[in-house]
Design goal:
The complex is a heterodimer.
Chain A: H1 32-37, E1 41-48, E2 51-56, E3 61-67, E4 72-74, H2 75-88, E5 92-95, E6 101-105, H3 111-119, H4 158-173, E7 184-187, E8 201-206, H5 215-221, H6 224-229, E9 236-242, E10 248-254, H7 264-268, E11 281-286, E12 301-308, H8 315-331, H9 338-345, H10 347-353
Chain B: H1 7-10, H2 20-33, H3 46-60, E1 80-81, E2 99-102, E3 109-111, H4 112-125, E4 129-132, E5 139-142, H5 146-159, E6 175-176, H6 190-200, H7 202-206, E7 216-219, H8 228-231, E8 234-240, E9 245-246, H9 248-255, H10 276-281, E10 289-292, E11 295-298, H11 308-312, E12 317-318, E13 323-329, E14 343-349, H12 356-372, H13 379-386, H14 388-395, H15 428-432
Parallel strand pairs in B: 6-7, 7-8
Antiparallel strand pairs in B: 1-2, 2-5, 4-5, 8-13, 9-12, 10-11, 13-14
Helix pairs in contact in B: 2-3
The chains are: A alpha+beta, B alpha+beta.
Bound molecules: protoporphyrin IX containing FE (HEM) (3 copies) and iron/sulfur cluster (4 copies).
One iron/sulfur cluster is lined by residues 145-146, 151, 153-154, 187-189, 191-193 of chain A.
């Protein structure tokens, strides 16, 4: 492994440095049919799960095949995507806002060979490399985060929980039988580097133990005032601590009764780790949406306060999600998003239909706005 | 032969959904074989060690990445996320394993030539593992060593004409829905403005100068396919001001069952024949539609442009011709004081190059937030702390009923001194002349 220079000269770092050029311009990469018809599209149709056609006022058509992507991917996999696009799509490709991959062709006769090619490719373990789907009233890709692959603050894994969940929900990726589309997302801690606070169903990594305090190092590693300011419930206070050897150090104390394990103090201060094998697990949220269709955008709400981490396949979590999907599929009206359904029937009925236990953890107790989530009416169902 | 035993994560090979474990393994093998004789600049077995570290995390139920990590390239204050494994002796291949954010083209269209060249670079100087894409939009290169950062950056800028994305307390990488490129609903060119503003504000993106992070996202219409209303401090949502364009013949084709409702999105179940009353007229949130004598009518003045009727009948209904966008501000995740979605600030603004009016709004918001925002306080939190009125003042926008979902219920109303006749300076002795103690 000999070091090979790119031309960069570490002795004169600012020489020949190019900065502030931003991304490449989008239209360098357009397929011809897109470049020609941009802004002229008349209508679209979903021909089958995963396959769309857009028709332009010029009469041109573009056919799109959407396939699932696992977001975390190797250059080998990207090269295989490119090989397919070279073969069928004149070397063009795009990725969606939910990390699916879209192959576009400009005539219908190019569609079948592309689909056949995509469907034929599998990984050694048997999983499909390029499952076609993710359109219409079904379940598309899960927006997710870093997990144990790359982040220091997770309470669960992202890639693993997502794979386990998509396997269980897979038939709905390739079907459009639901009342409306159903978005699932996942974040491995409540920084929510994902979409969990506004998704139909959301998986959230959660801790249940207050941080440990590495007093010996804390003052050396952390800006104590930042750790104090990081706490939403003011559980962190400055403290003078005497170590076992008698030295006095500046550190912090955590009022354990006020801590709700958000981990934000650890984000700011490396000496306050809180991950735990049995403490950590999953919170499930439901009922969020971002579109303005019919009802306003909604936050998702916590409906399951804790499911343990059961790596590698999280069976309790996936079974619970499946149960919620089935109850919704059976009961909701056409066009009704999960959150609209739950609000129409009432949350008491939602818990009943989804066979979920209601516990005190689900009642909001965070500051003033909590009051508005209690029930100020005698209208309820038995 | 794999370097580490991975019995737990091996169980994620099976099942229909593409397996990231099998993909990581194929990359580990490809590096081991090295058919192309790549002179790898970071450990050849780094992907094996990544699998090893992940397996260990599955065993322990805890992450094995050390806290934080501050690395980067000269001239920039962000773009690279430093990471170090907490078991470097067991997994030397990932002892350093930094993430680089690479700025993506708006709409995420690519040529294979561009992607393949990028793959060659990343295989040579990094782990060969990516995220396509990060949730903010960047191409994410996962895993390289510190000495490679400048080399990769040099190559990106000199060979690829391509910059890094954002990280830290600054403007992050803007992103958009694919807009007019392939959607008939797009009310403005999301890609054009996304690209233009990304370039306009390169300095703000690369050199953290803000109290905290700040994001732009651009949705072509209220369907919000890039979820700007939930995921960006400043959200641009396309809309229109005139009549929805109705093609009555096409309406008949829907009623007659020739065109599938919602473009066929519900084809997986038998929902019965299309019923325009039930599926459109009665679901309209404002009740502003009528269907009489085989004619569909919309009372434009009462329509809130929710997109439902257009989504159900895309071949018969189209957004109007007088198009622009709404600007909403303040969305953020829960930390610190609760999640927020964007709140409506500008009901309608034209989206036309060179976007001067829009830039004025952005810059007036930044001026305020950069001056008043506390350390690590998102725009949404500043608005909560100082009030929506203050935001209006700073941006020179007049209050209108559209700014609220409902008027306040409490009467704790502030007045400015100059709004009240006579001001606030009063003499109690003057008062006592008429009101004895
Ligand atoms: C309630 C209405 C809608 C919602 C909530 C919604 C939401 C979404 C979501 C979550 C995605 C990501 C899909 C994926 O990658 O699997 C998406 C993508 C997309 N949607 Fe929608 N959508 C809506 C309606 C529509 C309609 C009616 C159209 C077509 C006219 C449309 C056009 C698109 C396009 C073109 C993309 C790809 C966008 C991109 O990757 O930049 N959406 N939408
Ligand atoms: C804070 C960081 C957040 C990140 C990184 C994030 C990321 C994402 C991503 C990548 C998507 C997929 C977008 C798409 O399908 O087009 C998404 C969707 C979504 N996000 Fe977020 N999001 C964040 C915050 C929020 C917040 C604060 C809300 C709501 C309050 C929210 C609500 C949603 C919803 C509802 C969807 C699904 C859209 C739909 O299909 O209706 N997100 N988010
Ligand atoms: C501690 C380590 C962290 C890691 C490794 C991490 C990683 C990431 C990555 C890779 C992305 C996608 C970035 C892109 O596409 O350019 C992301 C997005 C995001 N992160 Fe983090 N993050 C961390 C901390 C945080 C913290 C502390 C917060 C908030 C308090 C946060 C909130 C978000 C949000 C809201 C997004 C989504 C933004 C969007 O969709 O536009 N993250 N994070
Ligand atoms: S959600 Fe939390 S744990 Fe997951 S990547 Fe983001 S910051 Fe890290
Ligand atoms: S984990 Fe959260 S609630 Fe607990 S002390 Fe840290 S910041 Fe405060
Ligand atoms: S947000 Fe609107 S314009 Fe953009 S892709 Fe979605 S439906 Fe089309
Ligand atoms: S866009 Fe929405 S509010 Fe307007 S007419 Fe259609 S359904 Fe009604």
């Amino acid at each position: 492994m000999a070091f090979i220079s790119s031309g960069y000269n570490p002795d004169k770092p600012m020489e020949n440095r190019i900065t502030d050029i931003g991304p490449r311009k989008y239209d360098e990469f357009y397929p011809a049919v897109i470049a020609k018809n941009k802004g002229k599209w008349l209508y679209h149709e979903i021909l089958e799960p995963g396959v769309l056609v857009h028709v332009s006022e010029t009469g041109d058509e573009v056919y799109t095949v959407r396939v699932g992507g696992c977001r975390l991917m190797s250059v080998t996999h990207i090269r295989e995507i490119c090989e397919i696009a070279d073969k069928h799509c004149d070397g063009h490709i795009r990725f969606t806002t939910r990390n699916n991959i879209e192959f576009m062709v400009d005539s219908k006769d190019k569609l079948q060979p592309l689909k056949d090619d995509l469907s034929s490719r599998k990984f050694p373990g048997g999983s499909l490399k390029f499952p076609i789907g993710g359109t219409g009233a079904g379940i598309t890709n899960i927006i997710h985060t870093q997990g144990w692959i790359h982040c220091h603050t997770p309470a669960t894994d992202a890639s693993g929980t997502v794979k386990a969940t998509m396997d269980v929900l897979f038939s709905d990726f390739q079907d459009m039988r639901l009342p409306a589309h159903l978005r699932v997302s996942m974040a491995c801690c409540l920084n929510m580097c994902g979409a969990v606070h506004c998704s139909d169903i959301a998986i959230l990594g959660y801790h249940r133990k207050p941080p440990m305090l590495d007093h010996e190092y804390l003052d050396k590693m952390c800006e104590i005032p930042l750790a104090i300011a990081a706490c939403p419930t003011a559980a962190v206070k400055p403290a003078k601590i005497e170590l076992a050897d008698g030295t006095k150090v500046n550190s912090v104390s955590v009022n354990k009764e006020r801590c709700m394990f958000c981990g934000n103090c650890y984000t700011m201060c490396p000496s306050m780790p809180l991950a735990d094998d049995v403490g950590d697990g999953i919170v499930l949220m439901v009922g969020g949406k971002v579109s303005n269709r019919i009802s306003n955008p909604k936050f998702s709400k916590v409906v399951v306060a804790f499911i343990p981490n059961e790596q590698p396949r999280w069976p309790t979590m996936t079974a619970t999600i499946k149960r919620i999907v089935e109850a919704y599929a059976k009961d909701a009206n056409k066009y009704e998003r999960l959150g609209e359904w739950a609000e129409r029937i009432g949350w008491e009925r939602f818990f009943e239909k989804c066979e979920l236990e209601f516990t005190h953890h689900l009642i909001d107790d965070f500051r003033d706005p909590a009051y508005y989530t209690w029930r100020q009416t005698s209208n309820f169902k038995f | 032969m794999a370097k580490h035993e991975t019995p737990l994560i091996d169980q994620l090979s099976s099942g229909p959904w593409p397996s990231f474990v099998d993909d990581l393994k194929q990359e580990a093998e490809s590096r081991a074989k090295n058919d192309k004789n790549v002179d790898f600049q970071i450990p050849q077995d780094c992907v094996d060690d990544l699998l090893g570290v992940l397996e260990l995390s599955y065993k322990h139920g805890r992450t094995h990445w050390k806290h934080g990590g501050i690395v980067g390239v000269f001239g920039y204050g962000g773009g690279v996320i430093g990471r170090y494994c907490d078991q470097p002796e067991m997994f030397p291949g990932v002892a350093h394993f930094h993430t680089m954010r690479v700025s993506q083209p708006a709409g995420k269209f690519y040529t294979t030539k561009y992607l393949k060249d990028l793959c060659d670079l990343w295989e040579f100087r990094g782990s060969g593992i990516t995220n396509m894409h990060g949730s903010t939009g960047d191409i994410i290169f996962i895993g390289t060593t510190t000495p490679q950062l400048e080399e990769i950056f040099y190559e990106l800028t000199h060979t690829f004409n391509q910059d890094l994305g954002g990280s830290g307390s600054n403007l992050r990488t803007p992103s958009d829905c694919l807009g007019q490129a392939r959607c008939e609903y797009a009310c403005y060119d999301t890609q054009a403005i996304c690209h233009e503003l990304t370039n306009e504000y390169q300095d703000e993106l690369h050199r953290p100068a803000f109290p905290y992070k700040f994001k732009f996202k651009f949705d072509g219409c209220p369907n919000c396919c890039v979820a700007s209303i939930a995921r960006s401090d400043m959200s641009f949502i396309g809309t229109w001001r005139d009549d929805i364009r109705i093609d009555q013949e096409a309406v008949q084709a829907y009623v007659g069952g020739e065109f599938p409702s919602n473009a066929g999105a519900h084809a997986g179940r038998d929902w019965g024949p299309f019923d325009i009353e039930k599926e459109v007229i009665n679901l309209c949130p404002t009740g502003c539609m009528k269907y009489e004598d085989k004619k569909l009518m919309i009372n434009t003045k009462e329509c809130t442009r929710c997109m439902h009727c257009i989504n159900v009948m895309p071949r018969a209904l189209r957004p109007g011709n007088d198009k622009g966008c709404s600007i909403l501000v303040g969305a953020k995740a829960p930390i610190l004081d609760g999640a927020q979605m964007g709140s409506l600030l500008i009901p309608f603004i034209k989206v036309e190059e060179p976007y001067d009016e829009i830039k004025e709004v952005i810059e007036s918001i930044w001026d305020w937030w950069m001056e008043e925002g506390k350390n690590r306080e998102r725009l949404g939190e500043l608005i909560k702390r100082q009030g929506f009125q203050r935001l209006l003042e700073e941006t020179g926008i007049k209050a209108v009923p559209q700014h609220v979902q409902e008027p306040r219920t409490n009467p704790y109303i502030f007045w400015k001194e100059d709004e009240v006749p006579g001001g606030w300076e009063r003499d109690v002795n003057e008062f006592r002349k008429y009101h004895l103690r």
